[in-house]
């Protein structure tokens, strides 16, 4: 996965490439970002185009962004309100419907608990698919390893985790450490300090190499739009992830191939 930003006519075009698993090539997603002073508009696009190489995908994403801007694109929804002490996301702004096949997908340790609730069935289906379908990748963030291995973690959770692969441990860069503090402050809000620093690390770590973070943590789910605005990482429930997987699975056979 590669990422590139380029300024163009007052916008920042951010292109992110993703290798495809079932066919040779890459696809690209891109964002058009504009700082309006009082707020930042950030609109996400998925190209649905296959390119021959990573470099072609990145160049294609930048080119597609320019075409959209040249076509008279106008942002219509505010994402980040800079006048507030913490980011505010318009209730009209839906999170993007990302394709789980095009990027790494991370799952939180708490999502592996069977609680008797409505998310259990979706979790079991996601785990089944992760073992049978090699067109998408499901990982555990390396930073949850100590949580999984803790003596108090239920045996059935450890058993489910054993079916998955941990991501490679990462060290955050200086800018990422700043982002980590922003996310920690966001999810903590006015609450007393607790797991917020660890949870923020899980999110920033996952955002380095992925686009989805599956969790049942209501604190994170309530801040999903703000987290997306900051990290371009979509926080969602198991049932929401499964719905996206099934939806995009039905669409993938219609993807045009423009790479050569």
Write a brief caption for the model.
The protein has 260 residues and is of the alpha/beta class. The chain has nine helices and ten strands.
Architecture overview:
This protein has helices spanning 54-70, 120-132, 145-149, 155-161, 174-188, 196-209, 218-222, 224-231, 238-251; strands at residues 2-8, 11-19, 26-35, 39-46, 80-81, 104-107, 137-140, 165-166, 210-214, 234-236. The longest helix is centred in the first third of the chain and has 17 residues, at 54-70. It is an alpha/beta fold and 260 residues long. It has a five-stranded antiparallel sheet, covered by helices on one side. The protein has a five-stranded parallel sheet with strand order 8-7-6-9-10. The chain has two domains: 2-81, Double Stranded RNA Binding Domain (2-Layer Sandwich), CATH 3.30.160; 100-250, 3-Layer(aba) Sandwich (Rossmann fold), CATH 3.40.50.1010. A hairpin with a 6-residue loop joins β2 (11-19) and β3. It is built from nine helices and ten strands.
Shape: globular
CATH topology title of the largest domain? Rossmann fold
* CATH class identity of the largest domain: Alpha Beta
Strand content: 15-25%
**Which architecture of the largest domain would the CATH scheme give at its second level?**
3-Layer(aba) Sandwich
Largest sheet: 5 strands, antiparallel
Radius of gyration: 19 Å
Distance between the termini: 19 Å
Structural class: alpha/beta
Helix content: 25-40%
Strand order of the largest sheet: 1-2-3-4-5
Report the average pLDDT across residues: 83
Poorly predicted runs are 77-93
Number of domains: 2
The total of helices stands at 9
Tally of strands: 10
Listing every helix as H and every strand as E from the N terminus to the C terminus, the arrangement reads: EEEEHEEHEHHEHHEHHEH
CATH superfamily of the largest domain: 5'-nuclease
């Amino acid at each position: 996965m590669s990422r590139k930003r380029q300024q163009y006519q007052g916008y920042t075009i951010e292109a992110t490439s993703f290798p495809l698993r079932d066919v040779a090539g890459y696809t690209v997603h891109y964002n058009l970002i504009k700082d309006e002073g009082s707020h930042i508009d950030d609109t996400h696009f998925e190209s649905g185009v296959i390119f021959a190489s990573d470099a072609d995908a990145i160049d294609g994403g930048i080119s597609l962004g320019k075409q959209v801007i040249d076509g008279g694109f106008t942002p219509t929804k505010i994402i980040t309100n800079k006048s507030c002490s913490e980011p505010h996301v318009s209730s009209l702004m839906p999170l993007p419907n990302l394709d789980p096949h095009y990027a790494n997908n991370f799952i939180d340790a708490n999502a592996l608990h069977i609680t008797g609730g409505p998310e259990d069935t979706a979790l079991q289906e996601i785990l089944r698919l992760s073992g049978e379908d090699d067109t998408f990748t499901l990982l555990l963030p390396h930073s949850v390893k100590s949580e999984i291995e803790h003596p108090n973690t239920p045996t059935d959770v450890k058993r489910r985790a054993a079916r998955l692969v941990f991501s490679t441990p990462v060290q955050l860069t200086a800018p990422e450490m700043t982002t980590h503090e922003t996310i920690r402050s966001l999810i903590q809000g006015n609450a007393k300090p607790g797991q917020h620093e660890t949870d923020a690390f899980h999110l920033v770590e996952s955002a380095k190499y992925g686009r989805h973070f599956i969790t049942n943590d209501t604190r994170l789910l309530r801040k999903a739009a703000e987290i997306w605005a900051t990290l371009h990482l979509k926080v969602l429930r198991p049932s929401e992830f499964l719905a996206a997987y099934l939806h995009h699975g039905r669409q993938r056979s219609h993807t045009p191939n423009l790479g050569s």
